[in-house]
């Protein structure tokens, strides 16, 4: 595992571009909205800020929807 530090992980609006809706109950469209999207993204970012700024050997995202969280985690995983 690489010891390189990883900058703070953050789900940004630009990361959501091109992510398709994964099904009828996938809330990804809410993440793209101006006001509501900010609340939805901040909910994810609060959890991401709990992670240490380091690389991880592996990651498991439970509750996979459109893949926004997985896409955000990917740069920190070997």
What is the strand and helix layout of this fold?
Layout: H1 28-32, H2 34-48, H3 68-73
Task: Walk me through the structure.
The protein is mostly helical. Helices cover 33% and strands 0% of the residues. It has helices spanning 28-32, 34-48, 68-73.
Mean pLDDT: 89
Number of strands: 0
What amount of the residues lies in strands? under 5%
- What is the percent of helical residues? 25-40%
Count of helical stretches: 3
Rg estimate, integer Å: 13 Å
Structural class: mainly alpha
Largest sheet: none
Q: Oligomer, anyone?
A: single chain
Global outline: globular
Could you list the spans in which at least 5 consecutive residues all have pLDDT below 50? Answer: none
Can you write the helix and strand succession as a string? HHH
CA distance, first residue to last residue? 7 Å
């Amino acid at each position: 595992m690489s010891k390189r530090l990883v900058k703070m992980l953050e789900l940004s609006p630009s990361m959501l571009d091109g992510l398709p809706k994964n099904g009828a109950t996938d809330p990804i469209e809410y993440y793209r909205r101006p006001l509501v999207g900010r609340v939805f993204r901040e909910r994810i970012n609060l959890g991401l800020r709990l992670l240490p700024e380091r690389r991880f050997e592996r990651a498991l995202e439970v509750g996979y929807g459109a893949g926004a969280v997985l896409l955000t985690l990917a740069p920190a995983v070997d």
